Amino acid sequence: MSAVSRDRLVGHAVEIPVRFAECDSYGVVWHGHYALYLERVREDLTGRFGFTATSAMALGYRVPITRMEIRYRRAIRADTTIVARARLRPPEVARLVLDYDIRDAADDLLASAETEQVVLAASGELLLTLPGDLKRLVENILKYQNEMAGTREARLGMRRS
Q1: The Cα angle at residue 156 between residues 5 and 49, in degrees rounded to 5
Q2: Residue 93, phi then psi, degrees to nearest 5
Q3: What is the pTM of this model?
Q4: 85, 45 contact by CB (below 8 A)
Q5: What are residue 112's phi and psi, to 5 degrees?
Q6: What pairing do the DSSP bridges indicate for beta strands 12-17 and 159-160?
Q7: Which domains occur in the chain, in start order?
Q8: pLDDT (tens digit per residue) in 122-133
Q9: Contact, 120 vs 64, CB < 8 A?
Q10: From the CB of residue 147, how many other CB atoms can be counted at a distance below 10 Å?
């Protein structure tokens, strides 16, 4: 394992095959596709608990991304498989902050990222505290992450995309 690998994020993981169509004229993944990789693992994590963008709207919430920061470390190339991981931070207010890492098959860090989402009522009103149903969702995700952190499967395993 390389020195780049030692701080691997412990979180929900998804394998994502990289398609040629995602690459730019330089032969590497176009930087805008990284946001899609983050969305893929974030939706897989929350979807595991029955919470999707569609279900959020059905419950009367909107949960827009208000901040995204991506730190590119190494290029991603076509015909490889990456592993995207996401981990939700315990929220103090109605704001969801997730940390991410994207790694290659050798477990080298390709990118790390952070997103922030706020919770809005259907009217567009910014909520300051998590409503009960979202609070339970967050508690379930945090419990899942804590259980994963203690297992070998969490450190090595992942879901295939």
Answers
A1: 115
A2: -140, -175
A3: 0.87
A4: no
A5: -130, 155
A6: parallel
A7: 3-156 (3.10.129.10)
A8: 999 999 999 999
A9: yes
A10: 11
